[in-house]
Design goal:
single chain; 73 residues; two-stranded antiparallel sheet; 4 strands; 23% helix; 38% strand
């Protein structure tokens, strides 16, 4: 079983755009998506679900693009 993890990685605009393009291509073609975040390679299966979340509090706003799936162990 993998350890719990909660990591946030900041990317340059160009790096973030490239990752979004690769994700969009994978979603559009129905392929799995691979990404490396803070040294760990993550494999996102085709069955993942996608959502967009918006939060607003104390003078700040946040949009999160979320990808969620259950691990089959």
């Amino acid at each position: 079983m993998k350890k719990e993890r909660d990591v946030e990685k900041v990317y340059s605009n160009a790096e973030f755009a490239a990752k979004l393009r690769r994700l969009a291509d994978a979603v559009e073609t129905g392929d799995k998506f691979e990404i490396q975040i803070a040294g760990e390679r993550i494999y996102v299966p085709v069955r993942a679900s996608f959502s967009v979340e918006h939060e607003r509090e104390e003078g700040e706003e946040e949009i999160e693009f979320q990808i969620r799936w259950s691990r089959e162990e």
